[in-house]
Amino acid sequence: MSYLERLGMAGVKTVKFDTGRGGLTELTGLDVVAALSGLDDVCCHYAHAFLTNGTSRRSVDRVVNYLSRMTEAVKPEQAKGLAVVALNENSQPQCVACGGTGIQHNYSDSLSMMIEALPCPHCKGLGRKPMKIKDKAKLIGVSWDTYNRKRDLYENELSAMKSEIANIEQRINKHGKEKLG
Ligand SMILES: [Zn+2]
Question: CA 7 to CA 91: how far, in whole Å?
Fold first, then answer.
């Protein structure tokens, strides 16, 4: 059985794809199979991991391995930990202060907002609730002190991984839109 056939049988009842038309369309598991067929391996595994809320260990592991291979600046086990952090941060709830935009909104002074477009101080421009350093350090397998000492290195690798995750999501959504019309 192919991966996509299994995806169709994964018990996915409905899934929401952003249609880019200001609304969301509900799809069935079979629609998902049709929508994903022809996508590259990492996109399929990402979609599967996403659709199963991370309960498909195999798909999560494949995505983690893919992301961890992006860096040679840290040990392989730490790189896997970084990939898990990147995936976690990417699925954190939206920041309520900025509504997920990552930009500071100040409606009482909209002119200065447009001029400066400051990063949201609550989420530091991430648009999502940031993870605590101690939680990140634990996932990477280093101490809080080590994380702080090598913070620039880790955060750089994390933002590269998060860009790649955004890229994967874009590829899935673009592909899905083309398939579904
Ligand atoms: Zn924010």
Answer: 21
Dist. CA 115 → ligand 1 center (Å):
18
Give me the half-sphere count of Cα atoms (radius 13 Å) on the Cβ side of residue 53.
Answer: 5
Indicate the average pLDDT of the chain. Answer: 79
Ligand 1 centre distance from Cα of residue 58 (Å): 32
**Distance from the CA of 101 to the center of ligand 1, in angstroms?**
7
pLDDT band, very low/low/confident/very high, at 9 (cuts 50, 70, 90): low
Q: Is 127 left (phi over 0), alpha (psi -120 to 50) or beta?
A: left
pLDDT tier, 36 (very low <50, low <70, confident <90, very high otherwise): confident
- pLDDT, residue 146, reads 96
Angle at 34 between CA 32 and CA 40, to 5 degrees: 85
pTM for the complete prediction?
0.74
Q: How far is the CA of 105 from the centre of ligand 1 (A)?
A: 9
